[in-house]
Design brief:
Metal Binding Protein, Guanine Nucleotide Exchange Factor, Chain A, five-stranded antiparallel sheet, three-stranded antiparallel sheet
Length: 115
């Protein structure tokens, strides 16, 4: 299934392919503040529909995750990094996807604050 997503103002638009089986809610210092619900997919499943340079990046701590956000509206629609096996991954903020029933998606709590 293909899902459409964007930041609030539309400067960042994307499609992501896959079935959302669950989402992750992390309590690390950035995720808790953003309030995102993350769905992890292979980076190849994420297709940007707007130029990559429309998104700004923020890194912190070990600088291994590119937290991508819109410099206009401030939304954080996705992040990019490596999976445990070293493969390219994307963390999609499902709150930025269209037509998603958030109540129907099981959410797993992750203690990123202690990691």
């Amino acid at each position: 299934m293909t899902h459409q997503g964007s930041c609030h103002c539309g400067r960042i638009k994307f499609e992501v392919e896959g079935e959302i089986g669950s989402a992750l809610s992390c309590n690390c210092s950035i995720c808790q503040r953003k309030g995102s619900l993350l769905w992890f997919v292979p980076r190849s499943a994420l297709k940007l529909l707007t130029p990559e340079q429309n998104a700004s990046s923020y890194t912190f701590n070990k600088h291994v995750i590119q937290h991508r956000f819109c410099p206009t509206c401030g939304m954080h629609p996705y992040g990019e990094g490596k999976g445990p096996d070293g493969s390219a991954m994307a963390a999609i903020n499902i709150r930025c996807l269209e037509d998603i029933d958030l109540k129907a998606v099981p959410v797993t709590e992750f203690d990123g604050r202690s990691k």
